[in-house]
Design a protein that fits this description.
The protein is of the alpha/beta class. The protein folds into five domains: about 240 residues, Rossmann fold (3-Layer(aba) Sandwich); about 100 residues, ANL, C-terminal domain (GMP Synthetase, Chain A, domain 3), CATH 3.30.300; about 120 residues, ACP-like (Non-ribosomal Peptide Synthetase Peptidyl Carrier Protein, Chain A, Orthogonal Bundle), CATH 1.10.1200; about 130 residues, Alpha-Beta Complex (Aspartate Aminotransferase, domain 1), CATH 3.90.1150; about 240 residues, Type I PLP-dependent aspartate aminotransferase-like (Major domain) (Aspartate Aminotransferase, domain 2, 3-Layer(aba) Sandwich). It contains 40 helices and 43 strands. It has a nine-stranded mixed β-sheet with strand order 2-1-10-9-11-12-13-14-18, sandwiched between helices.
Length: about 1100
Amino acid sequence: MNLDKYFHPFSPPTSHLVDCLQYWATHQPDQVAFYNVDGDAADQHITYAELDQRARAIAAKLTDLEMRGERALLLYPPGLDFVQGFFGCLYAGAIAVPAYPPFRTRYVSRIEAISKDCQAKVALTVQEVVERAAGTLDHAPTLRDVQWLATDDTTQIGSSDGWQPPAIQSSDLAVLQYTSGSTGTPKGVMLSNGNLIHNVSLIMHAFQPTRQGSGLTWLPTYHDMGLVGGVLMPLFLGRPNVLMSPLLFLQKPARWLQKISEYQVTISGGPNFAYDLCLDKITDAELEGIDLSSWDTAFNGAEPVRPETLKAFTRRFASVGFRPEAFYPCYGMAETTLLVTGGTKAQPPVLRAFDGRALDEGQVASMTLDQSGARELVGCGQILPEEKVLIVDPATANVTPAGQVGEIWVQSPSVGQGYWKKPEATTETFRAHTTDDPSEQFVRTGDLGFVDDGELFVTGRLKDLIIIRGVNRYPQDIEMTVERTDPHLKAGVTAAFTVERDGQDQLVVVSEVGPKRCEDWAEVTDAVRENVACEHELSPYAIVLVRLGSLPRTSSGKIQRYACRQAFEKDELASLATAITSDDAAQVTQTAEQATSSVAADITAEDNIDPRVAMIVLDNVQAVARERAKNLTLDSNLIALGLDSLERLQIANTLEEIFGGRLPAPVLDEIETCREVTLAIQEHIGTEPVIETTKQSGQQQPKPQHEIEPGDYQFAEMPEYKRLKQQMATLSFAGLANPYFSVHEGLTCDTTTIGGREMISFSSYNYLGMSGDPAVSAAAKAAVDRFGTSVSASRLVSGEKTIHRELEQEIAQLVNAEDSIVFVGGHATNETTIGHLFGPSDLILHDALSHNSIMQGAILSGARRRPFAHNDWQELDNILTEIRGEYRRVLVVIEGVYSMDGDYPDLPHFVEIKNRHRAFLMVDEAHSIGTMGQHGRGMGEHFQLDGGDVDLWMGTLSKSFGSCGGYIAGKKEVVEYLKYTAPGFVYSVGLPPANAAAAVASIQTLKQEPQRVEKLQANSTLFLKLAKENDLDTGLSNNTPVVPVIIGNSLLTLQLSLKLQERGIDVRPILHPAVEEKAARLRFFITSRHQPEQIERTVKEVTEQLNAIQGSRHQSGGNRRAS
């Protein structure tokens, strides 16, 4: 970094801070280095020459005490004495340990723990603290035995004559910066002289100060922001800084702005709550005479930066000269000395909107702020020079693809040396390395975030994440929702966290309230519960309101969530009001009749609500939600109940059938509460059900329809068909060809022919090249000659052929099962098997990303269907723990390789869970049989499981085996039962002989030529590796033959597919509504026949064409996808 322009006309050394102070003491000895603001008293100051002399004198005393390399506690009150003591340590080569002075007994235990941890020999402070602390040290033997020095007492600190400058190395430790945390295990970050110099250089580079500027800090100097930003950086720059006591600011926030105006300060800032406090406390009268026009760097960091705060502060103080471009959001931490990222000077903060629910799931999808579900975030700036920042999956240590949230990892000369005397914690935090490159070390910040167009966005703390029902939520988002609910709730003084109740994590919200009296706190807690449920799809288990100032805080004033959780568990909160959801089991299992009757009186009293419609709505919601529908009322939010989109749609479809009409699509998107559903039915359909429902009998009695809409008897008028035509018209209007039903004129494998052009193909799942293989084709032809083109009957009757038996034996042997049964289609295999084996008294739990055939089978069965978060065996375990006993049979369905994302589950965990809960486990191996495991035997071989560990192995014959159809393999009993009773088998023609023979030949070829699997897996790994190297978003793909490239925009995805087709590459787009808009993608199927040069060319073309399309769109003003 070249900092010459900020120092000009001076040239101070940048070796270490001792040299810097001596330089300024020589070149501008009488210039003020620091001012100290002390309430209404006259401001004090110290010059560079005076500071140099005081530091020498203190250092001489420390040298006499042989303190080089030893730890010295700095227990000063705010002011100039701290600065003198700190530089005294540097001048002596002692290690400074800043901490809060022990004025009160409650601080002693923490300082005692710090003193014991760092083995301090000396405590530097002022005489007043020595006297006041004397009575508090009786129970702090380690602290009491430290040698206390009052540096303002000339009898203890002599002259500077005996001082000799130490030989200071960049690697020498200068500071132990203890982070906020429990008193029992304090962690001191080891900061070297080199760390300090590098970080103050970064701050100067970021803030771009002038030689006419000055700073002000009210932050505590024992905190990294107060020390490094408020003391060391101004000293390094050689410009004055104003020191103000934190208490002065907190007592009267207007003092901060008044001193900025008085000293014409250019650089000052603090955590977000400081700006909120100004908004809350400063009156118009206090703004009289204030001029903030000099303030050009209002940094905001150390906690989440809230967009509402930036906007409100700008509006409120614009009249006294504050400008929006003065705001400087930044990111840093003690482990990195201070600063990591910062914005662009003199530019307004970067505010962008993203899909809030996607962020909760770890995905990044841009939105406009006016879109439903949008969450606005403030960018924390760009990565600064000489630093490397990665976004890493904390569970796998893999660098995340663009567009995903991960843990922020930092590599920089500013990163500290580790935690003092804590080698294990140091290794875990400071010696992290990615799986891609173990040679590079990073510090794990514990913060979650992502980089979007070069800007870092911080989304939350890893350890503070609220994870309920498999969904990640950031506590600060919930806290913000709470604080907006009611005027009694203040900004920045809320804690959201989880507690365990009955084996389940539950949300707890604790919030401080202002001094204004409230007649009914229940109204406030009810409003909090409603707002949190609506905005975050989660209802708090407990809401606790406490007195202002009573929650535990860190040294910088931030609420400590962990300490709040402990206080809640121990019932130590000073509660004004507490609202806890009842745990009464009877309440959970109450019948629909009991639930609805409890609100019947309220319903009949409302003129705009038809009681009959309302109770039908409540009945149907409870029928689906079951145990989640606690205390169901008209105002219950369906999302807050935990109902997923398919379950909500199921409720809507049932109600449409009952009332004989259709709710318009926009209305379906908007209604969330039972009340809104009721009103929507009344407005758009009517109040008379066309099907009479009786809860006791469950029978439905048709009623005559008065009018039948054309869309109910003419296909051309069906709303579903009209929506399809509208989507096709949209493509046509955009000048884009229909991407579907393209005609392939020959065999499709690594290449295909379309319109007479041969292309590289990634659009078929002919994974092992069996389709078109001469031996496979010959077997199919021979079967036609022997058995004909059709078996012409159900196998149960007369369609059974020897080739069927041979195929089923081959399949059973391949997957190590007792027997198997073959169906004519893969989709039908799942539908008929699931639909036949399970019924209304059963439960089907499936992965949230399961194939449509699995969900259709579940619907066909009539069993209760419930998804769990993708690959989340822990959530599955929790669900089964909670409700397994309520059902006869339970089926868990997962896939081997997921066809949209190319990842796979941790199958051994699912096996263990199904065994423990006595459930059935079904694995759909459509994309894993033939592709996974050393010999292509699927997930059982991949994880070295026994075939009997899974109850139902499902697979298809159309992918790896060059044929058509599906199979179920498992115990002989289930296969026999299906052969005699499964409707999709008994009432269907048998598999055509040619298909059966082709599949047999493919399995036999696979056994003879296992190198096909090896080549396929090598090709898949190569494609994924090259895609990641080119920063393509491959989502969750994990070295399988399915590799998505996620674009996040259907139109861009289609454009890219067509561009690639022009370049001779055929890959199909997956567009909305097949996937969510933010998940629009190209899906590449890799085969064993692909050559490395085909893969290399394809990845190169994808990268170039995508960049060209995005660049063109960006230049024309379109929305560019997050990258």
